[in-house]
Amino acid sequence: MADHQEATLTLPSEPVSVPAARRFAREVLSSWGLDETGRTAGALLLMVSELATNAVQHTRGQSPVFTLDVRLERHERLCIGVTDSHPRWPRRLPAAVQQDNGRGLVIIRTLAAEAGGRMSVTPTDEGGKTVWITLPWPAPGPAPG
User: Fold this and answer.
1) Alpha helices by DSSP H, the chain
2) How many angstroms separate the CA atoms of 127 and 16, rounded?
């Protein structure tokens, strides 16, 4: 078993890339042994969708692409990151009761915490940032291959 497995996909910062990012994450996580029909997979894929949506909506055209990075470290820790080149870091916006958006970070933080993990942001050397979700690996047994 490898100590570190990683899969990366770079997509254009366009709305059609959000389902592509989710599909990629589902395929990778499934190949590593996660039951894609379970509640954990659903929560992980929702977090991926929210991160990708933020990379598309909040970079306001200043990041032509975003990168989804999925890492499994020692079959113990799962790290999912979305990197864009926009310099502004995400911040929680006040959400009005009738507002349809603005809750993505709250959703991500809540789901990550419920799974025993956390969300963090790190700068890139190019002036952008990566928003990370780090969680205990939820799948049983060793990862295939």
Assistant:
1) 17-31, 39-57, 104-114
2) 25
